[in-house]
Amino acid sequence: MPSEAAQLSEHVLEVAAKKMSDRGDGNYYHRVSAISRCLRDMVLHAYAEPWSNEPQAKWGDTYRFNQGHDVEDRVIKGLQDAGVVVSCQQLKVQATSPMGKPISGHIDGIVLVPHHLPLGGKWFLMDVKSAGAFAYKTVLEKDQPKLDNMRQVSIYTQSIVNDDNYPEVKGIKVCDLEFDDYEFGGGMLCYFSLDRPVKGYGPSREDQPKMHFITFDVDPHEVEMYLDVFDEVDIHKREGTIPSIPSPSDEMVWGRQQKDGSYKAIRCNPRWCRRYDVCQGIEKPIQNEVRELLWER
Ligand code: SF4
Q1: Which residues contact 225 (CB under 8 A, 6 or more apart)?
Q2: Within the chain, how many helices (H) and strands (E) appear?
Q3: Residue 1's pLDDT band (boundaries 50, 70, 90)?
């Protein structure tokens, strides 16, 4: 029997998890931030299939999401304290798919680096990402952004400003925005480690920087390809189909090579996928169309 104090913490986590489950992921619409999702999950969402796998209270997912928002605020504050202007925070933007469908998003901010600092005289479209130990170590060692993060920021740069709070720039492509004395430098990702970042083990262990910025150029042609996935969702919906389960090596299911050379789809797990049971045929879908497509064949 857990102690009363442990029971109290369980209760707090359960209330947070219940709130999250009640919200679910809402009605489907194309969002730039969905660029990292599994296509099959997106299509199930587009059919309005609800979650079949609720988050467990002990995971504290709500708190993890909120940590991300808190980190974003603190990093922006830190940049400003260091004399770096962060403009257009939470600016609403809209991308367009190759088939002409709107995809909405909002940016963390535009960073204008003063001329006396490294990267001085350039402005960047910035997104802040909080990262656990493994993800942070990977980006720090490779000095390269995660592919999904890079795609998301790249799409933002090619989107149109769609924000009534910024009427003077509404309708302008983000990368074409003009800031006196600053030229467009591309995308910027700011990774912030939630854990203590260290390198090595034992006595040779060294502390690593808590925060790491990576900048990159944006290729507009590549961005068009990234946006294809949103049209794929619409095509499946229109044609009454659901994409099959991706190969375990596919990056959209976090395919990771194992020691024996085979691949494992890390994301295909109730821990990470909220529609796992429906997708895998374990639970009967709620929506008629999905039931006909996945259950009654
Ligand atoms: S279980 Fe895997 S393939 Fe199925 S929807 Fe989830 S992430 Fe996609």
Answers
A1: none
A2: 9, 12
A3: confident
Predicted confidence (pLDDT) per residue in 240-275, tens digit? 999 999 999 999 999 999 999 999 999 999 999 999
What's the predicted TM-score (pTM) here?
Answer: 0.93
Q: Give the per-residue pLDDT at 201.
A: 87
Q: How many domains does the chain have?
A: 1
Backbone phi, psi, residue 75, to 5°: -65, -40
Measure 157 CA to ligand 1 centroid, in angstroms.
29
Q: Whose CA is nearest to atom 7 of ligand 1?
A: 268
Pick from 69, 226, 228, 206: which is nearest to 141 by CA?
A: 206
Structure tokens at 19: 């709130």
Ligand 1 atom closest to Cα of 252? Answer: 7
- Count Cβ neighbours within 10 Å for each residue of 24-59 and write b for 16 or more, e otherwise: eeeebebebebbbbbbbbbbbbbbebbbbbebebee
Atom 5 (ligand 1): residue with closest C-alpha?
41
Reported as half-sphere exposure (CB side, CA atoms, 13 A), residue 134 has a value of 0
Residue type, 285: P
Q: Which domain holds residue 36?
A: 4-294
Radius of gyration, alpha carbons of the chain: 21
Distances (CA, A) of 183 to 90, 123, 135, 152: 21, 6, 31, 21
Whole-number Å distance, alpha carbon 267 to ligand 1 midpoint, is 7
Q: What does the pLDDT look like over 53-109, one tens digit per residue?
A: 999 999 999 999 899 999 999 999 999 999 999 999 999 999 999 999 999 999 999
Please work out whether the CB of residue 174 comes within 6 Å of at least one atom of ligand 1. no
Distant-in-sequence, close-in-space partners of 115: CB < 8 Å, separation ≥ 6: 121, 181
